[in-house]
Design a protein that fits this description.
heterodimer, A: 374 residues, alpha/beta, six-stranded mixed beta sheet, four-stranded antiparallel beta sheet, 34% helix, B: 240 residues, mainly alpha, 12 helices, 78% helix
């Protein structure tokens, strides 16, 4: 647990970066500091490991005042990940990861063995261990940065915009894996971002900070979307928050429509016979959905071929049964046939839903449920 | 000056005053020339080593406290404008040495090396990316350990480039000290001038130039190779 008690940071020129901040980041949870630039989120983060000293107030980690521990000792016990990873360019990947254990005086061989384990944990092949950071992509560097922060197994991790400098596809991947990792590791994490979507996706709780270092609201993502504390939070959280709030609303078990499916290699004529309203869902042999095939308005001669991958429409997203209303609605809205594809946890096809059915489910939620969105 | 006593020899076998006779000249005075070559070698290298040792803390200071940088760079830069011959002559009275004291040349050249290397060290340290410094600090490096284990290794390429300049320029400056009578390859130029009355006699002068250039080349290549060996990570970047 990390506790801020009336922490203020005022610079000599009079600028107040953080204004009497009091909050608790719970153990084993991800607490996200989010806000526009100049809101003091990074300053607040850096006061935890004393890269910046507060002007007044105190910060405690598990009831230990951070100023009562020597800086280096404190920092070796806190994982730290930054935007461009900040890897040491002159050290190999494995040596980068082993940094903190070696600073702590651990056995060199053990530190390296541990480093290799961590590389695997963050999804990097062992063949990369001997490379230098410059030989890695931005996303790979960031993984090494996370592995390095985890190396000494610190209970607390500070992450300062760790995924901001990579492209959106890689970012989404890193975010997913970060969440998976956190499910295993249960670290106490303070995560700084300027991106409200990232905050909502990753945070167990989100602290929205306002320029001048005021805490505007500290709440779960669902609460934040449903009950923004003031106009600033409402504006910052954004316009489509009603839709995004569905991302925290459990859909429950939806009744599904049975949907005949076709498989690759079938004759098109055979596929047409099972199509509903001119569309048929094509799956592989394991009943994993591949895409939709349009069969309406095809001449008899065009129907002489077979179902191939190239002829599929891949526009539809998949929703997992028991997932969120947002995923379900999106599956229905994005499906070219108008029927959203629902799969089980392993990705096997279960059935379809229509947008109107999902909307009905959304309507049926009690006003309380709508308010809490959780 | 002992060199002068040897003068009659090359003139004795007479005819060949062509610049290309330098190799013959070397063979005739091998012992002496090798002695000067050795003197020249250590007089070129020692000041760079001492200069680097002095420049590391000064350069660190200029990097650590930003306001120190401009005056430090100006002052050390100005040192380089002192004419070398004047510096050689002024060092003994300043440091309480006798004329032609063996420390005279190393001290003067150390001044030049510092003049070049302070800036190089400061710029080398400045070449370390800020996020690397942040990360090092955040992981619990103390400032000295960070300097030795993170900043200096990353600054090696910049510092090595400065060492190349300092070493090569020292080779030429040492020769100047030869003309005031210190034992080193500069003595060959002295000899050449002395032997050039009444007619021009080039072999010792050309030999001096050739040996100086050779020496500078060997130093330069050595520093390049050491730099390569110390920075495998730089080539890894290139191989990407």
């Amino acid at each position: 647990m990390i506790r801020f008690e009336s922490v203020t940071k005022r610079y000599p020129d009079g600028t107040v970066a953080v204004d009497s901040l009091s909050l608790v980041a719970d153990s084993g949870e991800i607490t996200v500091f989010v806000g526009p630039s100049g809101c003091g989120k990074t300053t607040s983060l850096r006061m935890i490991n004393r890269m910046i000293e507060p002007t007044s107030g105190s910060i405690f980690i598990d009831d230990q005042d951070v100023t009562k521990v020597s800086r280096t000792e404190l920092r070796r016990g806190i994982g730290y990940v930054i935007q461009h990873a900040g890897l040491f360019p002159h050290r190999t990947v494995v040596d980068n990861v082993a940094t903190v254990p070696l600073l702590l005086g651990h056995d060199k061989k053990k530190a390296r063995t541990r480093a290799l384990e961590l590389l695997e944990l963050v999804g990097l092949p062992a063949s990369m261990a001997k490379r230098y950071p410059a030989q890695l992509s931005g996303g790979q560097q960031q993984r090494v940065g996370v592995a390095r922060a985890l190396a000494a197994n610190p209970p607390v991790m500070l992450m300062d915009e760790p995924f901001s400098a990579v492209d959106p596809v890689v970012r989404a991947q890193l975010q997913q894996e970060f969440l998976r990792l956190q499910q295993e590791l249960h670290k106490t994490i303070v995560f700084v971002t300027h991106d409200i979507d990232e905050a909502i996706k990753l945070g167990d709780r989100v602290a929205v900070l306002q320029v001048g270092g005021h805490l505007a609201q500290l709440a779960t993502p669902a609460e934040l979307l449903a009950h923004p504390a003031d106009a600033f939070v409402a504006g910052f959280v954004g316009r489509d928050r009603g839709y995004r709030a569905l991302g925290f609303a459990d859909a429950g078990q939806m009744p599904l429509l049975a949907e005949p499916t076709a498989q690759l290699g079938w004759d098109l004529a055979k596929a047409r016979d099972v199509a509903v309203d001119g569309w048929v869902l094509v799956t592989d042999a394991e009943q994993m959905p591949l895409g939709w095939l349009r069969l309406e308005g095809l001449s008899d001669s065009a129907l002489s071929g077979q179902v191939t991958e190239a002829s599929l429409n891949l526009g539809g997203t998949l929703a997992v049964q028991g997932g969120t209303l947002r995923a379900l609605l999106d599956a229905a809205l994005s499906s070219p046939s108008g029927r959203g594809v629902v799969v089980d946890d392993d990705g096997h096809f279960l059935g379809t839903v229509t947008a109107s059915e999902v909307l009905e489910r959304i309507q049926q939620r009690t006003p309380v449920a709508r308010g809490d969105a959780g | 000056m002992t060199g002068v006593l040897l003068l009659p020899q090359p003139l004795a076998n007479g005819a060949d005053s062509s610049p290309w006779h330098f190799w013959g000249y070397f063979q005739d005075h091998r012992h002496e020339d090798l002695h000067w070559l050795w003197e020249h070698t250590y007089l070129s290298l020692l000041p760079v080593a001492i200069g680097l040792a002095i420049s590391l803390p000064l350069g660190w200071l200029a990097r650590r406290y930003r306001w120190v940088y401009p005056p430090m760079i100006s002052i050390t830069g100005l040192l380089y404008t002192i004419p070398s011959i004047a510096l050689f002559i002024i060092v003994p009275p300043l440091f309480g040495l006798k004329s032609l004291d063996p420390l005279q040349v190393p001290i003067a050249l150390t001044v030049y090396s510092v003049a070049l290397l302070v800036r190089v060290v400061a710029d080398g340290l400045a070449s370390v990316p800020d996020d690397v410094l942040q990360a090092a600090t955040a992981m619990g490096y103390g400032s000295f350990r960070r300097l030795v284990n993170v900043e200096l290794p990353i600054a090696v390429p910049v510092i090595a480039a400065g060492l190349r300049v300092a070493t090569v320029s020292n080779v030429s400056l040492v020769a100047v000290a030869g003309t005031i009578g210190m034992d080193n390859l500069g003595r060959l130029f002295d000899q050449g001038i002395q032997l050039s009355t009444p007619t021009a006699y080039y072999p010792p002068i050309v030999l001096g130039i050739v040996l100086c250039v050779l020496l500078a080349t060997v130093f330069d290549v050595t520093i390049v190779l050491l730099n390569r060996a110390a920075t495998p990570w730089r080539r890894a970047v290139a191989a990407r």
